[in-house]
Specification:
heterotrimer; A alpha+beta; B alpha+beta; C alpha+beta; B: 8-stranded antiparallel sheet; 7 helices; C: alpha+beta; Glutamine Phosphoribosylpyrophosphate, subunit 1, domain 1; 5-stranded antiparallel sheet; globular
Chain lengths: 259, 240, 219
């Protein structure tokens, strides 16, 4: 079965399965004000002995991506985006337009859905960046679709973060940076299960304006200390995918989906 | 040559210009930047085409002025038009400014010289994008590029620059800047055999890019220096 | 009778200018003029020859401007690529080696640039590297390149290396070296027509990179 064959129902199942791969990663979210974009990621470590998997990649001074799904695929796309930004700076002496790079990435993803010898990317990206039109937040999918948002969360257990963002996004536009980071962490806090919480080790906060910056542990700790107390949350409403059994520390994962 | 055959001669590129334009003058002023050039395209020493516009609007905020080989100037103009169309097709309201275009032109010129197939021009790229500061850059056939407050190409480098150095100020009004550019081209017309008495002036002020209708230059040839019969006089001190 | 002369287009130009670098124990001083000329014409009086590559490394290039622009752009891109890959900035020694291979890569159509690479190395010592156009390099205590380099070098030999001095003088401190650089460039401006207008002086030490400018003669 190749990845471009139609199902009798008129769907391309392999592409839809690739979209599922995005949900197997840990959550990552982004939100923007009129001056900044903030990306927040919740990282997983493959084992007690391993480092946490990197979820946020700096692309250029003015751009970064948060990823969910196959980290290996994400690194390919990150390399591609970094290269495009460097080339653009080399030729035009200026920062690359965020929306246009997202469209290029989407085109690249789309091509992988139309060629029998290829497979779609198994990763979703949140692309955060600032250009002449101000801050932007985009999502790209393995299908080649892309969307622009005020705020968005992707990855496993992201629904609860999305709910938080939907409730508060109208405040983001005029929020100052501290408030924006607070909202981001608050939203991410909603995704954690009852036996885990946000720590400076498993969380990354990146701030994108003209410059890219990751919050230091000390800075982040202050925000984490100020987080609202969690009530006993209801169970996740998404059905856990079968492959999630690979999360068990002793089960060898067929593919690294820990991103 | 028939298909499948090839020449034994080495591949050759144009290394000298054929139809040429002369001086371009560019300078910043209080609210933006202006560019001026005469309307002549010479064929060697022949004044071949006398109604050519050597200024080119590029994109939304930029002006390109070209001296040297006119066909290369037109070729690059067409390339830049295609790039400007790309901006339109993206429908995101983002348009490249003079900084982007001048850098791009600089890379094109350098890459062509590195392939030993240069665009035989001296360009002045000017513009102003919205509230950003005015931009003025010189680029030539070897890829030499720099930014300045005022610049002149070709013979203007020798005849115009001294006037610009004496009279240019950052707070010049548009009329003052136009008058100074006109003065430079007037001097060029008197002494540069490839210059002409009709000019275009282009203005970029951040919101618009305008290229004027052709403007005739004042010129007066009744000075003694031009009318005295030096050869008949057998004047050993004559320097004209 | 003179034989006909064929004017051939040349891909190369000499845009003149002078730069110099002097290493101290834990600092380095880089100085360069800002004149950009071609033949007897001055293109511009204010065009920097120096590009900052990392927090403690700069490169100064004399020779042909367009090659220098291209080289500097290329190096800056390589700095970003290194940072993405290694999550830190490259050391001065690493950049020095990379510059050498970059130049030699174009051995048969060289960058017509004469580079001085300066910075503070991983041991905190001042580092100055000198290059020819095709990548020969050497780490030296002090160097100079460009149209006025012959004039500069003789002074540095005397004042920094104390070569052939009949009277022993104490070696210069940081401020003394900066002053020497200013004096030397001013003097070179008197004798070399391609050097002048303004000079930039970069001081790199543990505190970072600081830049000062001063005037040379405009003639």
């Amino acid at each position: 079965m190749d990845c471009i064959t139609w199902s009798p129902a008129g769907r391309i199942l392999q592409v839809e399965y690739a979209m599922e791969a995005v949900k197997q990663g840990t959550p990552v979210l982004g939100l923007r004000s009129k001056t900044h974009v903030v990306l927040v990621s919740f990282k997983r470590a493959q084992s007690e002995l391993a480092n946490h998997q990197q979820k946020i990649f700096k692309v250029d001074d003015h751009m970064a991506i948060g990823i969910s799904g196959l980290t290996a695929d994400a690194r390919v796309l990150a390399d591609y985006m970094r290269n495009e930004c460097l080339n653009h700076r080399y030729v035009f002496d200026s920062a690359m337009n965020v929306g246009r790079l997202v469209a290029q990435v989407a085109d690249k993803s789309q091509q992988k859905t139309q060629n029998s010898s290829k497979r779609p990317y198994g990763v979703g990206l949140l692309v955060a960046g600032c250009d002449e039109k101000g801050p932007h937040l985009f999502e790209t999918c393995p299908s080649g679709n892309y969307f622009e948002y005020y705020a968005m969360a992707i990855g496993g257990r992201s629904t609860s973060a999305k709910t938080y963002l939907e409730k508060h996004f109208e405040e983001f536009e005029s929020a100052d940076l501290d408030a924006l980071i607070k909202h981001g962490l608050e939203a991410m806090n909603k995704t954690t299960s009852s036996d885990q919480s946000l720590t400076t080790k498993n969380t990354t906060v990146a701030v994108i304006s003209d410059k890219y910056r990751e919050l230091s542990s000390e800075e982040m700790q202050k925000f984490i200390d100020g987080l609202e107390k969690k009530e006993d949350e209801p169970m996740e409403d998404e059905p856990a995918p079968a492959a999630a059994s690979g999360d068990a520390p002793d089960a060898p994962a067929p593919m690294d989906t820990s991103g | 040559m028939a298909p499948g055959q090839y020449s034994t001669d080495p591949k050759q590129h144009t290394l000298s210009p054929i139809v040429t334009g002369a001086t371009v003058i560019g300078m910043k002023y209080k609210d933006g930047v202006i560019l001026a050039a005469d309307t002549l395209a010479s064929y060697g020493s022949e004044a071949r085409y006398k109604d050519v516009c050597r200024l080119k609007k590029v994109g939304e905020y930029t002006l390109l002025g070209g001296g040297g080989e006119l066909s290369d100037f037109q070729y690059l103009s067409d390339q830049l038009d295609e790039m400007a169309d790309e901006d339109w097709l993206n429908e995101d309201g983002c348009f490249m400014g003079p900084k982007e275009y001048s850098s791009y032109i600089g890379r094109v010129m350098y890459n062509r010289r590195s392939k030993f197939n240069p665009l035989y021009n001296q360009f002045v790229v000017v513009g102003k994008k919205k509230d950003e500061p005015a931009h003025l850059m010189y680029v030539d056939h070897q890829g030499t590029a720099f930014e300045e407050n005022f610049v002149a190409t070709g013979f203007g480098m020798h005849l115009g620059i001294p006037l610009l150095r004496n009279s240019w100020r950052a707070d010049m009004s548009l009329d003052e800047a136009k008058a100074l550019a006109t003065k430079c081209l007037e001097v060029c017309f008197y002494r540069d055999c490839r210059a002409y008495c009709k000019i275009h002036i282009g203005v970029c002020n951040g919101t618009s890019v305008d290229i004027s209708a052709p403007i005739p230059l004042n010129h007066f040839w009744g000075h003694g220096a031009w009318t005295e019969k030096r050869l008949e006089d057998d004047d050993p001190t004559a320097t004209w | 009778m003179q034989a006909p002369v064929e004017q051939r287009w040349s891909p190369y130009a000499d845009n003149g200018g002078t730069c110099m670098g002097v290493a101290g124990e834990d600092f380095v001083v880089v100085a360069a003029d800002t004149r950009l000329s071609q033949g007897y014409s001055i293109h511009t009086r204010n065009c920097s020859k120096v590009t900052q590559l990392t927090d403690k490394c700069v490169i100064a290039s004399c020779g042909m401007k367009s090659d220098a622009i291209t080289l500097h752009k290329h190096l800056k891109a390589r700095m970003v690529m290194y940072e993405h890959q290694h999550r830190r900035q490259p050391s001065v020694t690493a950049i020095a080696q990379m510059l050498s291979t970059t130049l030699y890569y174009k051995r048969f159509f060289p960058y017509y640039t004469f580079n001085v690479l300066c910075g503070v190395d991983d041991e905190g010592k001042g580092a100055v590297y000198n290059y020819d156009a095709i990548g020969n390099m050497e780490r030296v205590p002090y160097t100079t390149s460009g149209s006025g380099s012959a004039l500069v070098m003789s002074v540095l030999d005397a004042q920094i290396a104390k070569s052939n001095q009949t009277i022993a003088t104490p070696s210069l401190d940081k401020a003394g070296i900066v002053e020497l650089c200013k004096d030397v460039l001013s003097s070179v401006g008197e004798r070399d027509i391609h050097t002048g207008d303004y000079a930039e002086i970069f001081l790199i030490d543990a505190a970072g990179i600081s830049k000062t400018e001063f005037d040379l003669k405009l003639d």
